[in-house]
Amino acid sequence: MATSRDYEMNSERWQKVKGLFDAVVELAPQERKQILDNACSGDAQLRCDVENLLASFEETESFMEQPAAREVASVIIKKDSQLEAGKSLGHYEIIKQIGAGGMGEVYLAEDKKLDRRVAVKILNEKFSPQESNLNRFIKEAKAASGLNHPNILVIHEIGENDETHYIVSEFIEGETLREIVGKSPMKLPEVLDISIQIANALTAAHVAKIVHRDIKPENIIVRPDGYVKILDFGLAKLIEQKVIGFEDATVKQNETAKGVILGTVNYMSPEQAKAERVDERTDIFSLGVVIYEMIAGRTPFAANTMSETFANLINAEPQPLARFAESAPDELQRILSKMLRKNKIERYQTMKGLLANLKGLQKRLNFESEFDKCSVPLAIGFSREQSETRKLEAASVNEKKSSTDEIQNKKSIAVLPFANISADAENEYFCDGLAEELLNALAKIDDLNVAARTSAFSFKGKNTNVSEIGNILNVNTILEGSVRKSGNRLRISVQLINASNGYHIWSERYDGELKDIFDLQDEITLAVIDELKVKFLSEEKAEVLKRYTDNPQAYEFYLKGIYYRWKLTPEEFGKSLKYFEQAV
């Protein structure tokens, strides 16, 4: 009678031993050792079992028919083409061979019944109709195709003709993600769009209890219009069942059998590398590797040898994205870090949760992109050179990098938001807009460092003394002011303050009507420049005094647009666009 120990060895234990054996049997001794060091860490008996099996195999070379690695390889090796152009397979007429994969050859064919082009996969002879693995594959492939998801390759038919077994799917014009990644660095919007489409497809599959198990660039096709299709649902399951001879013909709920190492090494999860059970979190990890590669141009755990890659996969943390792409947002790094956690319990637990985060990031970046485009809208004639924005941002950076001596040698200023002392609180837009316009004008002077708008306006509503503001922003002068607006009447009071001691350098009050706003704005700007005694070139003066409209009402709409734009929410951004449109 078999003992409990015998039973364990004959089922799960044997599968794990055999899976590791297959993974290392053809490797050099040192590579073999490194993989076993990682995969068998904490399980000395497992290592002993694998090494005993290896020793027996090397002595007899006939302990098994073939290791699974060789068996799978024999499936992948391309054979001579079975079908020539013009040959018919049922009602499909072969046009040409377009590829060869793990299951056999792939052909472009004409569907004579429906007058459409299709892709026909001729199954390798290894997958005979009597074998349960073929039936399992058919079941899972049909299940995936039955989802009718736009990002999952549609399978039209699985059939047999003269003992030739084939799978007919839609034919996709496009490139594999592998081809796209290999061309040039991908832009972030494209990466997010592709990633979200993949996650959408996998979310639908996971809800149906289908795990892909082999997400990699080769299994992702991108059409010329940007539409993504995921290929080969069920292929990994097919190979897995063939390798380990598993008897269960059903699709397991979010998991597969223990004990076999499957998938392309660079894209497999740690649990796959350790021949442990996998579930939908394996797809999450593999998608994380794909996203990382799209951004960085390399996979996160790649190494010179397979054993080193295995070791990295199990033990090493990926290098930060910023090393390869400085512009990669922190939020994307956070998402990827969670996707690539070694312990699947620490990853996203569902593809749906990951998808929500990816969509949220995409929405925020799209909003910021539109925000940047409309920060000074071209359509209403208030255009500014992009260099102005860069100058303000550079000034913000310089504030932190410059030494105290440099600050003292070059004039610098922060324009704080003006206080609204009108009876109507709604006039706040006018106060903020006026301060920002003065800031933009002063930023055109090369001899003057101007704190960025985001930095200066961060003190709005705060009771912070000017000396502290000067220290934080690294400026030696502060411009603050107030606005009283009643109907069309305006009173603008401004003060220029020495940030080091808080003393007033200069102050003035300007009265006028709304129609005079452009003249008042120019007067204030020129007065500040004069008091600061900065170099003011004639071409700079022309640029500072340049007007983009003479219509006070359009200018008010413009200031309202600026005000709501800086609220940084989609709802307020919509208001901003409406005001900008009214200003036209």
**What is the CATH homologous superfamily assignment of the largest domain?**
Transferase(Phosphotransferase) domain 1
Number of domains: 3
**Strand element count:** 15
Q: Which strand order do you get reading across the main beta sheet?
A: 1-2-3-4-6-5
| Terminal-residue CA separation | 90 Å
Count every helix, treating DSSP H or I runs of 4 or more residues as helices: 23
Strand content: 15-25%
What's the alpha carbon Rg, rounded to whole Å? 33 Å
**Low-confidence sequence ranges:** 1-8, 59-81, 238-263, 375-407
- Briefly note the CATH topology name of the largest domain: Transferase(Phosphotransferase), domain 1
CATH class of the largest domain: Mainly Alpha
Overall geometry: elongated
The average pLDDT value, as a whole number, equals 75
Which structural class is indicated by helix and strand composition?
alpha+beta
| Quaternary structure | single chain
Q: Helix coverage percent of residues? A: 40-55%
Largest sheet: 6 strands, antiparallel
Q: Architecture of the largest domain in CATH?
A: Orthogonal Bundle
